[in-house]
């Protein structure tokens, strides 16, 4: 059965690849998308029937691929999927991970992609007082972040407190300041109250209008 969160169950038909290699210290075996990779070996994640390009893009932004790369458990040895980046920070993260293709607009087929229908906001400071009392914070003024499926991509906001990732509906909930249907822009912390020393950042995606 496919892992929870992955809905594509077809063997890939095109020569698209996203290959990662297990470089974890101590001979550790890692699991990605519920698939084990022995230490020192590589795996094309797109060969896993239930994994799509959209799953990989999402995981690189805020999922297990992101965590395993920054933990130095894996590197990317080959990739030709679309990972066009306009955020310089996330672009550098992908380059450091070993990705060199698919980061720029354009392709070997001769067409040019001039603009994506969505934009990334990466590690922006949440807005709101940190006074050991306030729990409600907002994203950048005017931003409405996507929560759910948009153009076959599954987007959710990622919140970090002092560098530690928080879990939606466990540590925080999201809401719409203007009412239902106006767009998500509020975060309410439910597991703790931040102090003056707290650093709260958010990474999310908005529609490029």
Poorly predicted runs are: 1-10, 106-114
Strand content: 25-35%
Profile the largest sheet: 4 strands, antiparallel
Helix content: 10-25%
| Broad shape | globular
From the helix content, strand content and strand pairing, which structural class follows?
A: alpha+beta
Order of helices and strands: EEEEHHEHEEEEEEEEE
Radius of gyration: 18 Å
Number of domains: 2
Strand order of the largest sheet: 6-14-10-11
Mean pLDDT: 81
**N-end to C-end Cα span:** 38 Å
Number of strands: 14
**How large is the count of helical segments?**
3
Topology:
Blueprint (H helix, E strand, L loop, with lengths): L17 E5 L7 E3 L2 E3 L4 E3 L8 H10 L1 H7 L3 E6 L8 H9 L21 E8 L10 E3 L9 E3 L2 E3 L2 E4 L2 E2 L6 E4 L10 E4 L10 E8 L2
Antiparallel strand pairs: 1-4, 1-5, 2-3, 6-14, 7-13, 8-9, 10-11, 10-14, 12-13
Helix pairs in contact: 1-2
Description:
The protein is of the alpha+beta class and 209 residues long. It folds into two domains: 18-96, no CATH class; 118-207, no CATH class. Helices cover 12% and strands 28% of the residues. The chain contains three helices and 14 strands. The strands form five sheets. A four-stranded antiparallel sheet has the order 6-14-10-11, with no helix packed on it. The chain has a three-stranded antiparallel sheet with strand order 4-1-5, covered by helices on one side. Helix 1 (53-62) crosses helix 2. The chain is globular, with a radius of gyration of 18 Å. The model is unreliable at 1-10 and 106-114 (pLDDT under 50).
């Amino acid at each position: 059965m496919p892992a929870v969160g992955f809905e594509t169950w077809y063997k890939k038909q095109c020569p698209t690849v996203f290959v990662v290699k297990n470089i974890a210290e101590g001979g550790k075996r890692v699991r990605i998308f519920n698939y084990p990779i022995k230490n020192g070996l590589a795996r094309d994640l797109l060969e896993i029937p239930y994994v799509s390009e959209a799953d990989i893009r999402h995981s690189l932004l805020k999922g297990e691929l992101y965590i395993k790369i920054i933990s130095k458990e894996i590197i990317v040895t080959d990739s030709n999927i679309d990972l066009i980046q306009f955020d310089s920070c996330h672009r550098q993260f992908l380059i450091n991970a070993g990705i060199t293709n698919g980061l720029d607009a354009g392709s070997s087929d001769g067409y040019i992609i001039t603009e994506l229908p969505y934009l990334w906001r990466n590690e922006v400071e949440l807005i709101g007082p940190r006074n050991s009392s306030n729990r409600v914070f907002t994203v950048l003024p005017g931003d409405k972040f996507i929560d759910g499926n948009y153009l076959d991509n599954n987007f959710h906001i990622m919140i970090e407190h002092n560098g530690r990732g928080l879990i939606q509906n466990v540590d925080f909930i999201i809401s719409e300041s203007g009412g239902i249907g106006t767009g998500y822009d509020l975060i309410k912390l439910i597991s703790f109250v931040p102090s003056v020393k707290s650093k709260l950042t958010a990474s999310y995606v908005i529609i490029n209008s």
